[in-house]
Design goal:
There is one protein chain. This protein is an alpha/beta fold. Helices cover 33% and strands 28% of the residues. Strands 6-7-8-3-9-10 form a six-stranded mixed beta sheet, with helices on both faces. A four-stranded antiparallel beta sheet has the order 2-1-4-5, with helices on one face. The chain is globular, with a radius of gyration of 17 Å. The mean pLDDT is 94. It binds adenosine-5'-diphosphate and magnesium ion. Adenosine-5'-diphosphate binds next to strand 1, strand 2 and helix 1.
Length: 224
């Protein structure tokens, strides 16, 4: 699914240059469930941004499928993000004035021409049912628990059937019981959909549930 070769990323901070990724070589096969751990500032989020086509590397190549993200224009990156990748974050990023179903439907913004209103509603409903929220379709985020809100965010990330799910600290804002529930939901979706999943986490319990664990520190990645 991914082939990273010599990936470097530097940021300009005031007058100095910060190296966030330092020559990362990494292959992630299709269908793998990978956890990424490491200290704050180590480069976890930067790596996830590269995998998510949110940004291009400063050097090296990030091949997703058969395309090198480093060489694509903004339009192509937007298209890849919209069609191939689902994102989940620590803060659920739901729109408070929209119901669970409407929040999931926002994934189709910009592609209304390609899907009818009814299709979108059907897809959103099915995605929420697949994360166990079939009974909460018309609830607002404030009427849902943290775990339920994160499940809505997972449904929104997956409703367009992406190939890849990228999660940055998806359980970071949740208590332990809810953490287990969210990881089980992600694992279930991974198995059902044959997704490639990358989870950044500080939590060793979460990391141990993955097939593969990576550690990233000073912009360098190794398997553990
Ligand atoms: P982590 O997610 O592991 O905490 P990050 O990938 O966020 O690490 O950051 C790695 C390094 O890159 C840090 O030194 C951070 O300050 C720097 N960095 C990350 N994003 C930016 C940015 N947009 N601008 C400048 N520096 C950044
Ligand atoms: Mg981070």
């Amino acid at each position: 699914m991914y082939q990273l070769s010599g990936v470097g990323k530097t940021y300009a901070q005031k007058n100095k240059k910060v190296t966030a990724l330092a020559g990362v070589d990494l292959e992630i096969p299709t269908g793998q469930l990978v956890a990424i751990q490491g200290p704050t500032g180590g480069g976890k989020s930067t790596l996830l941004q590269m995998l998510g086509a949110l940004d291009r590397p400063t050097s090296g190549s990030v091949v997703l499928g058969d395309r090198d993200i480093a060489e694509l224009g903004d339009g192509a990156l937007t298209e890849i993000r919209a069609s191939e990748i689902g994102f989940v974050f620590q803060s659920f990023n739901l729109i408070p004035t929209l119901t669970a179903r409407e929040n999931v439907e926002t994934a189709f913004a910009g592609s209304l021409a390609r899907s009818s209103r009814d299709e979108i509603t059907r897809s959103a409903t099915a995605a929420l049912e697949s994360v166990g929220l079939g009974e909460r379709l018309e609830h607002l985020p404030a009427e849902l628990s943290g775990g339920q809100q994160q499940r809505v965010a997972i449904a929104r990330a997956l409703v367009k059937n992406p190939k890849v799910l990228l999660a940055d600290e998806p359980t970071g804002a949740l208590d332990e019981g809810t953490r287990d529930e969210i990881i089980s939901i992600i694992e279930g979706q991974w198995k059902d959909r044959g997704l490639t999943v990358v989870i950044v986490t500080h939590d060793s319990w979460v990391a141990r549930r993955a097939e593969r664990r990576l550690h990233i520190k000073n912009g360098q990645v190794r398997d553990i």
